[in-house]
Structures are given as C-alpha cells and as structure tokens.
Amino acid sequence: PDELGHDGDFEGKKAFIEKLDAKIAPLLELDFNKNCLIVTADHSTPVRVRDHTADPVPVVIVHEDVRKDEVKTFSEFEAYKGGLCRIKGIDLLNIALDLLNISEKFGA
C-alpha cells in the first residue's frame, strides 16, 4: 500500500489492505501458545500527506502471553495509544523469540 499512499489513492489503499486482511485471516487459526504472529510496517505513508511521516507505525503481536492494551483498531492514530509506544524492529524479533521461549528473556 506504500505506492497507493504516495498516489493519494484512498480507495486503492483500502482495497489493498482488505485483500491483505483476507490473506492473513487463516493465520488466526494457529495455536498461539506455540506460534507468534506480528503484523507491522516499516513506515507510515498517509494518503492525505502522500509521503512518509514520523507517525507511529501500528504493530499487533498475537500470542497467548502477550499483555493486551486498550487499542482496538490497527491504525497510525491508535498506535499513539498502544502499550508498546515506539519500538524498534529488532526489539520485535527479541519479543517474539522470548514469547516462543527460544531466547533469553527480553529486557531481563
């Protein structure tokens, strides 16, 4: 959807995200005691701006042991309210490895 954001194509970006949602949906049937699903992006490209911004990038982590916050919508605006605050990509990998008991405890 990055190019659609640059083009200012709201309907195109919405349709692309809906197609992505449909592809990801079957993954929600996994056993999240044994698996971890992380969905995010590398940067925000809002349609109204048509360029990359410093807005927080939404992140969702699905696993039995993840502490839940109050965010209910996957969006840049809601990311401001999330429990992860701003996080680096390498930290996401460490969190996933920790949840799967593959590495040392993250932050310990």
Structural class: mainly alpha
The top level CATH class name? Alpha Beta
Distance between the termini: 37 Å
Per the CATH scheme, the topology name is Alkaline Phosphatase, subunit A
How are strands sequenced across the largest beta sheet? 1-2
Q: What is the C-alpha radius of gyration, as a whole number of Å?
A: 15 Å
Helix coverage percent of residues? 25-40%
- What's the helix count? 4
Our estimate of the beta-strand percent is: 5-15%
Mean pLDDT equals: 89
- Order of helical and strand elements: HHEEHH
CATH architecture: 3-Layer(aba) Sandwich
Molecular shape:
globular
Number of strand segments = 2
Q: CATH-wise, what's the superfamily?
A: Alkaline Phosphatase, subunit A
Low-pLDDT runs: none
Pfam families: Metalloenzyme
GO molecular function: metal ion binding; phosphoglycerate mutase activity
Function: Catalyzes the interconversion of 2-phosphoglycerate and 3-phosphoglycerate.
Family: Belongs to the BPG-independent phosphoglycerate mutase family. A-PGAM subfamily.
Task: Map the helices and strands.
Layout (H helix, E strand, L loop, with lengths): L1 H5 L3 H15 L12 E3 L20 E3 L13 H4 L9 H11 L9
Antiparallel strand pairs: 1-2
Keywords:
phosphoglycerate mutase activity, two-stranded antiparallel sheet, Alkaline Phosphatase, subunit A, Pglycerate_mutase_ApgM, Phosphoglycerate mutase, mainly alpha, Metalloenzyme, Alkaline_phosphatase_core_sf, 108 residues
